[in-house]
Design brief:
Pfam families: LysM
Keywords: Signal
Structural class: alpha+beta
Distance between the termini: 37 Å
Protein name: LysM domain containing protein
Helix content: 10-25%
Bound molecules: 2-acetamido-2-deoxy-beta-D-glucopyranose
Number of helices: 9
Amino acid sequence: MLNRKPICGFSKTQFLFFTLVLANVVLVSSKSTIEPCSNSDSCNAMLGYTVYTELKVSEVASLFQLDPIAILTANAIDISYPDVENHILPAQLFLKIPITCSCVDGIRKSVSTHYKTRPSDTLSSIADSVYSGLVSADQIREANSISDPTVLDVGQNLVVPLPCTCFNGTDNSLPAIYLSYVVKPVDSLTAIAARYTTTITDLMNVNAMGSTSVKAGDILAVPLPACASNFPKYASDFGLIVPNGSYAISASHCVQCSCGPGSLNLYCMPASLAVSCSSMQCKNSNLMVGNYTVQQTSAGCNVTSCSYGGFVNGTIVTTLSTFLQPRCPGPQKFPPIIAPPSSVISDSIFAPSPAPQSDGVGSLTPRSSLVPVTGGSLTGLPPVSGPVGSASDACSLVNPLATFLIATLPFFSLKLIFAIL
Ligand SMILES: *[C@@H]1O[C@H](CO)[C@@H](O)[C@H](O)[C@H]1NC(C)=O
Ligand SMILES: *[C@@H]1O[C@H](CO)[C@@H](O)[C@H](O)[C@H]1NC(C)=O
Ligand SMILES: *[C@@H]1O[C@H](CO)[C@@H](O)[C@H](O)[C@H]1NC(C)=O
Ligand SMILES: *[C@@H]1O[C@H](CO)[C@@H](O)[C@H](O)[C@H]1NC(C)=O
Ligand SMILES: *[C@@H]1O[C@H](CO)[C@@H](O)[C@H](O)[C@H]1NC(C)=O
């Protein structure tokens, strides 16, 4: 029989058709959470970015005009790995990108990103592929007053407005930093809540949603529990906030601050890459930033610590403080760091969403799609199971595109049905 495997080989027309359906869905109905603002204060925020092709760490950083170290620490990737900035990240890797969120024309957005056009770029390819759906072609067109989007000069410098929210740096009165997350075709609100250990209710409140339905291409603000700093307003790193399980680098690479896994108190210490840094010793003491001494007294544990107080005029501010605690703290624990990823466990694109019972608990989904080097580049693709059966076995490892389309077919057909109704 000649046509045993029609599912594996999509014709070009079929593929174009599905692409158009997807593009249509994204363009017509995608929503993103908008936070009105009135003051000029900015905050730290995160973008959920999917690497669109194999890219060096430094290339991802330059897409956002960021310090590569900032991207690595935000994802708890080992910065002492040899030549880590030139490490090649696999396509489809999901990364958290730290950005500054400003207030522009009354709404929160990030406007610090610029993109220099290359041959064969289109506004759609820049929006959907290079910036993984965090921006739309229309938004780039508007931000740059482009009248004819079919004519893009090579080397043109485009502003890329990106979504972000601050919400006062809190979620339910606890410190939080907000991740702008682009909903993928197989995502459900339950799965997103589980992945980020939050609840459906919280996501619905934050995003002012009337129902639990989300569509591919929607951009949600996802609160990440974080450790907040209380540096003075005149410090250049004022407002530093670090999500649980990660790090940030500050004070010209001199200080590294981490958050979690135990308490959500920001812990800063000299960075491993510190080269020429101003003194990190606390006045009138022999303690350095991050050091503490404990003394058991009858009243409890007397803890004296030297902590980082912000970067002011090129100087590292240190604060010596003493406080009594009921019990002495153990040694400082750090969030685990991972080797620079070379393959992807695609827990959000290919894997089925967790069952609804897992609402808000998050023990079923891995917290991160980042994995250390394991082997061949295909090992990260789990086999597709489900209604397609044997046909998928034959295709899944050979043709990831076909696998993707098979996995998302129910989504497309649903959309079509709704479109027809
Ligand atoms: C903003 O957060 C601060 C603590 O970080 C809190 O004291 C203040 O009440 C919050 N303001 C609003 C409007 O939620
Ligand atoms: C912080 O992360 C750790 C490890 O991932 C987790 O056990 C802990 O519950 C998290 N804390 C909060 C408040 O989410
Ligand atoms: C102080 O911190 C430095 C750097 O983190 C460390 O090498 C040193 O051992 C610490 N000293 C004390 C007394 O804890
Ligand atoms: C705690 O330790 C500091 C410095 O070692 C000392 O000055 C202070 O008197 C101690 N406080 C108590 C209550 O023991
Ligand atoms: C930083 O330095 C400038 C000029 O050297 C000075 O005017 C300013 O007051 C300093 N700021 C702080 C917070 O020390």
